[in-house]
């Protein structure tokens, strides 16, 4: 079965620093991969998605992610963190034949001044 | 479109009572998903529907949980009887986006925070 693993339940960065949130997937075929963001007391919002086109995917709010088949990874990055980026981030996978999204355990991003 | 609409936003109930959560998907979407979010277990898929038909309910924790989708614009998740361990945030999501059979995006509602005391 397809799955994703997010390394680190919490990541702390300073405002202006690089953001790196890690996601590794397990799939028997090239998957579709997603990053969602959840702000406090809100639902999940799609940040970006990889659907087998370009391996470097750009999303909203300056985030991007790169699909690396050799590393089975889909890490999320942002060059310069902003206070408003503080939220929980979820990686998800949609595998061939599966009509649903399977989510990772989430990573809470903390941004300090 | 107003997005996926869930009601109520907050529900506090006593153990043993019946609880009904409601969801209105985005118009035109043919898939509907119910998720549960807790600190301990993260986001769990409970059940999903395609064209109002339940496709996979393997995530429903117990017989106390049931879900229906009587039409394309409405779904309910019912817990009877409720227990304190059911306390969680319940999300509804909908989608119409497919690429070669794979889901390409799901839109989430704001969630219902359920507290069972």
Report on this structure.
The complex is a heterodimer of chains A (113) and B (117). Chain A is mainly β and 113 residues long. Chain A has no helices and eleven strands. In chain A, strands 2, 4, 5, 9, 10 and 11 form a six-stranded mixed sheet that branches. Chain A has a five-stranded antiparallel sheet with strand order 1-3-8-7-6, with no helix packed on it. Chain A is globular and about 45 Å long. Chain B is an all-beta fold. In chain B, strands 2, 4, 5, 6, 9, 12 and 13 form a seven-stranded mixed sheet that branches. Chain B has a four-stranded antiparallel sheet with strand order 1-3-8-7, with no helix packed on it. Chain B is globular and about 45 Å long. The model of chain B has no long low-confidence stretch (mean pLDDT 93). The A-B interface holds A 32, 34, 36, 41-46, 49, 51, 90, 94-106 and B 4, 31, 33, 42-43, 45, 48, 50, 55-56, 91, 93, 98-111.
Tally the beta strands of chain A.
11
Flag low-confidence runs of chain A: none
The first-to-last residue Cα distance of chain A is 41 Å
Largest β sheet strand count, sense and barrel closure of chain B: 7 strands, mixed
Order of helices and strands of chain A: EEEEEEEEEEE
Roughly what is the average pLDDT of chain A, rounded to an integer? Answer: 91
Query: Which chains make the largest contact?
Result: A-B, 25 and 26 residues
> Which percent range fits the helix content of chain B?
under 10%
Distance N terminus to C terminus of chain B?
36 Å
Radius of gyration of chain A: 13 Å
Structural class of chain A: mainly beta
Quaternary status? heterodimer
Shape of chain A: globular
Count the DSSP helices of chain B.
0
């Amino acid at each position: 079965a397809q799955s994703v693993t997010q390394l680190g339940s919490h990541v702390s960065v300073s405002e202006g620093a690089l953001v790196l949130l890690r996601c590794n997937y397990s799939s028997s075929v090239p998957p579709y991969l997603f990053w969602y963001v959840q702000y406090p007391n809100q639902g999940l919002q799609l940040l970006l998605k990889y659907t087998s086109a370009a391996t470097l995917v750009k999303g909203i709010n300056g985030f991007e992610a790169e699909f690396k088949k050799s590393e089975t990874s889909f890490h999320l990055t942002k060059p310069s963190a902003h206070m408003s980026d503080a939220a929980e981030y979820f990686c998800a996978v949609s595998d061939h034949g599966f009509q649903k999204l399977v989510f990772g355990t989430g990573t809470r991003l903390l941004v300090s001044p | 479109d107003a997005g996926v609409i869930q009601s109520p936003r907050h529900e506090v109930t006593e153990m043993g009572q019946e609880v009904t959560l409601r969801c209105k998907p985005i118009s035109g979407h043919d898939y509907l998903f119910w998720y549960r979010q807790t600190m301990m277990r993260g986001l769990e898929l409970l059940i999903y529907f395609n064209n109002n038909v339940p496709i996979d309910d393997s995530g429903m924790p117990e017989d106390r949980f049931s879900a229906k989708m009587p039409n394309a614009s409405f779904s309910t998740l019912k817990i009877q009887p409720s227990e304190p361990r059911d306390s969680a945030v319940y999300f509804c999501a909908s989608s119409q986006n497919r690429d070669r059979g794979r889901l390409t995006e799901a839109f989430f509602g704001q969630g219902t925070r359920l507290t069972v005391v």
